[in-house]
Design brief:
With about 300 residues, the protein is an alpha/beta fold. The chain folds into 3 domains: about 120 residues, D-Maltodextrin-Binding Protein, domain 2 (3-Layer(aba) Sandwich), CATH 3.40.190.10; about 80 residues, Periplasmic binding protein-like II (D-Maltodextrin-Binding Protein, domain 2), CATH 3.40.190.10; about 80 residues, Double Stranded RNA Binding Domain (2-Layer Sandwich), CATH 3.30.160. Helix content is about 35%, strand content about 25%. The protein has a 5-stranded mixed sheet with strand order 2-1-3-10-4, sandwiched between helices. Helix 1 links the parallel strand 1 and strand 2. Helix 8 runs parallel beside helix 9. The chain starts with a strand and ends with a helix.
């Protein structure tokens, strides 16, 4: 492969390709001699579209095939929604850059109801996320939560076909693709704590590829990197992925890193929540310590029950 060419590996969905093309444009703008091409790679998550993510092994579902291509040097970098990237990467791979974060919040979409609070009792709400399901049922145990899979367009189409009264999606994806007008309500982090890494892009490379790592520095956002380092350390200590109702969000406030963490049962009946802070340079320690506090408070029993089921 020519030294002035980079190949990005990406899923083929509209959102994934938007994200890959955004990275491509930033790299080409920063390096005038560089040619960047995109190779579409189908992942397991793109093949098994009907079953709930929790039933088909959520961790790595949208990344494994792309990581294989990276390890085999068929591509030079992989662009992921960071929330889809497992906290433990395959040997030989690492995060080369983390993008500036978009809106981290979850979005409430409905054609007939003005807010989550305004939903009538028994309303059917679509989501593929156990994290959203558990927190939603904690807020509104009277709602029916139904599985919702497919790409962004498919999910919105199912709402428009009245298969659901409302659906929950990430604001970041809707904003990136110009669907802001479909968002009825942006739910606060306190209402629905986001997924670890939500709103950021993670760019994965080979450990030994210092040339690509250096080229990616034009994309790297240190503030977001500090926040997601805490979040990923939190999730890593809890051993969770898409199949476990874990939420974590970190942010910088007055030169310190603050973090909110949640572990919940899938029905929302049990929910453990805690918040902690630390100096920014202790991001990983903050995430791990917050996880330990939740485990000690009783969250370990939820995780044990889920792993046994």
């Amino acid at each position: 492969m020519p030294s002035n060419q980079l190949t990005i590996g990406s899923r083929g969905s509209k959102l994934a390709l938007f994200q890959a093309n955004w990275v491509k444009s930033k790299l080409e703008a920063a390096h005038s001699d560089l040619r960047v091409v995109i190779e579409i790679i189908k992942t397991s998550g793109d093949v098994f579209l009907d079953a709930p993510l929790s039933q088909i092994g959520g961790k790595g579902l949208f990344t494994k095939e792309i990581e294989d291509a990276l390890l085999e040097s068929r591509i030079d970098l992989a662009v992921h929604s960071l929330k889809d990237l497992p906290t433990v990467l395959p040997e030989g791979l690492s995060l080369g850059a983390v993008s500036s974060r978009e809106d981290v919040r979850d979005a409430f979409l409905s054609n007939e109801h003005s807010s989550l609070v305004a939903l009538p009792k028994g309303a059917r709400v679509g989501t593929s996320s156990l994290r959203r399901q558990s927190q939603l049922l904690r807020l509104r145990s009277d709602l029916e939560v139904a599985n919702l899979r497919g790409n962004l367009d498919t999910r919105i189409r199912k709402l428009d076909e009245k298969q659901y009264d409302a659906i929950l999606l990430a604001c970041a994806g809707l904003d990136r693709l110009g669907y802001q007008h479909r968002i009825v309500e942006r739910l606060s982090v306190q209402q629905l704590c986001p997924a670890v890494g939500q709103g950021a892009l993670g760019i994965e490379i080979r450990d030994t590829d210092d040339t690509t790592r250096n080229r990616l520095q034009c994309l790297h956002h240190t503030t977001t990197h500090s926040a997601v380092t805490a979040e990923r350390a939190f999730l890593r200590r809890l051993g969770g992925g898409c199949q476990v109702p874990i939420a974590g969000h970190a942010w910088i406030e007055e030169s310190r890193l603050e973090m909110l963490g949640i572990v919940a049962s899938t029905d929302g009946q049990q929910l453990f929540r805690d918040q902690a802070s630390a100096p920014i340079e202790q991001a990983a320690e903050l995430g791990a310590q917050l996880a330990e506090r939740l485990l000690a408070s009783g969250a370990s029993e939820i995780l044990k029950a889920l792993s046994a089921s």
